[in-house]
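in:
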């Protein structure tokens, strides 16, 4: 059974749905998809689109249900299989993600485009299977030499492997292709930080923050660089801001506590230590440089579905 694609008659409706998603009008998109499914309960593309909307909203279980339904209707629907893989990846269900990416690429030679291969690479990267990640990123970049997301993520993989010169080359290339790519700029800053080239790291983190003033990770990473340079007041200001933007990030809270010891050394009380100890038990605190990232941030912003 071949994938059921939107008819020309429905093209305007599809375009409207695309605009809803692009503008973040998720409730309107869901209403339109619900109506399309009500009119045609076997419309695989409507289930795919509604699944994509749920995924964009972080409602992953509902996204999986829609992708499952689309695949039930058409077991060879590679688009739904790959996007289900992306949802599993976001849920850190990596083995299931790999299985779906493998199946989608196997099913449709034309679907073995850069996004599917690079997304599989990102899954390998999250699993710390770096050589396999590099192989997929290499293939994706071969297919699309201007694919900045894959290039920057390959740079992150090189960074994780301690191959700093190759990481810098990839970040430089990604920034050359897209000078406003904050992910690549901050990644290069992260690499400079790991190489103890702190002034260059500061320049990149500051540029990323200029482009996106609410990027808590870039702000915290600049704070870490200030700390490494023993510029503690500036470090504290950055961690305060990062925590304001992302109050649930344990790493930022722990680093701020550490910096405060340098600014005003004092013997902490049991009451001060206990909450931090409980936090540390729940989640390991990663050494710096560089600061750890959440799984989503660690593999870069997701490529387009």
């Amino acid at each position: 059974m071949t994938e059921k694609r939107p008819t020309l008659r429905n093209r305007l409706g599809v375009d409207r749905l695309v605009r809803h998603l692009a503008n973040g009008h998720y409730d309107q998109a869901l209403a339109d998809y619900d109506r399309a499914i009500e009119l045609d309960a076997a419309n695989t593309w409507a289930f795919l689109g509604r699944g994509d909307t749920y995924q964009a909203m972080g409602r992953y279980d509902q996204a999986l249900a829609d992708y499952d339904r689309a695949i039930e209707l058409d077991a060879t629907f590679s688009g739904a299989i790959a996007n289900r893989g992306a949802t599993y990846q976001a849920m850190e269900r990596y083995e299931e993600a790999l299985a779906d990416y493998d199946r989608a690429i196997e099913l449709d030679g034309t679907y073995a485009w850069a996004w599917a291969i690079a997304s599989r690479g990102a899954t390998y990267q999250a699993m710390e299977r770096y050589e396999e990640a590099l192989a997929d990123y290499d293939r994706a970049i071969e297919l699309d030499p201007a694919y900045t997301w894959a290039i920057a993520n390959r740079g992150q993989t090189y960074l994780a492997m301690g191959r700093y010169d190759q990481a810098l080359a990839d970040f430089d290339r990604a920034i050359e292709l897209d000078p406003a790519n904050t992910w690549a700029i901050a990644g290069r800053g992260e690499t400079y930080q790991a190489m103890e080239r702190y002034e260059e790291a500061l320049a990149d983190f500051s540029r990323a923050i200029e482009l996106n003033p609410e990027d808590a990770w870039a702000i915290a990473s600049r704070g870490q660089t200030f700390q490494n340079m023993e510029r503690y007041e500036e470090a504290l200001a950055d961690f305060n801001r990062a925590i304001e933007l992302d109050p649930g990030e344990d790493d930022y809270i722990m680093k701020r506590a550490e910096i405060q010891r340098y600014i005003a050394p004092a013997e902490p009380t049991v009451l001060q230590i206990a909450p931090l100890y409980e936090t540390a038990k729940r989640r390991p605190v990663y050494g710096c440089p560089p600061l750890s990232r959440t799984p989503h941030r660690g593999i870069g912003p997701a490529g387009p579905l």
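note: Confidence is low (pLDDT under 50) at residues 1-16, 269-299.
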